[in-house]
């Protein structure tokens, strides 16, 4: 004789889709935890006194929206993307002096929203003092400040002889390195430059170009 025990309240099989969902949730939780542990346990990208780093990447230079008044018209200067290069020497642990270089950026200049005033090229060599935060992980943020000397050349204009004076001003930056090897890192970097230049056309001063651009860069940085 068999004795059947009636099921207690709540004592029943879970639906198949609910069971699969619970298993998937556990797998995702384990994967997320493993990824976090791997990132935090990765060896730090050391920034020690005497180290050198070299970086190569691309930079998007975007002047501010209001670029001053030239010849009585509002000026607009467009954006450009070029290769960028950095070299940094660490004078103290986590404290480095960095030089930024690039291939020439080229910008079109428009007056009053429609008048083609020409184009100009420039180079933005910048010397900065950077502090890299010691995080003891693969992620290393940093901040920096320095001086920029902008060299303008190859000015061309259908309106005549266009000249843009060189500029000297401050530069600020912030960035984040992520270590991909014990000596290499991928870097995301944002810089701001104070660039204001007098402009002449056919020898006559026509105003000041207020450029003040942002530079957004992505680079590979290698430590030596």
Notes on the protein architecture:
12% of the residues lie in helices and 58% in strands. With 224 residues, the protein is mainly beta. It has one domain: Porin. The model is unreliable at 1-21 and 31-43 (pLDDT under 50). The strands form two sheets. Strands 1-4-5-8-9-11-12-15 form an eight-stranded antiparallel barrel.
Primary descriptors:
224 residues, mainly beta, Porin, 8-stranded antiparallel β-barrel, 3-stranded antiparallel β-sheet, 1 helix
Summarize the structure.
This protein has 224 residues and is mainly beta.
Spatial order of strands in the largest sheet: 1-4-5-8-9-11-12-15
Rg, nearest Å: 28 Å
State the helix count. 1
| Total domains | 1
How many beta-strand elements? 15
Instruction: Quickly give the CATH architecture.
Output: Beta Barrel
Report the major sheet: 8 strands, antiparallel, barrel
Q: What's the rounded overall pLDDT mean?
A: 86
Query: What is the element string, with H for helices and E for strands?
Result: HEEEEEEEEEEEEEEE
The CATH topology is what? Answer: Porin
InterPro entries: OMP/PagP_B-barrel, OMPW
Pfam families: OmpW
Organism: Ruegeria intermedia
Keywords: Signal
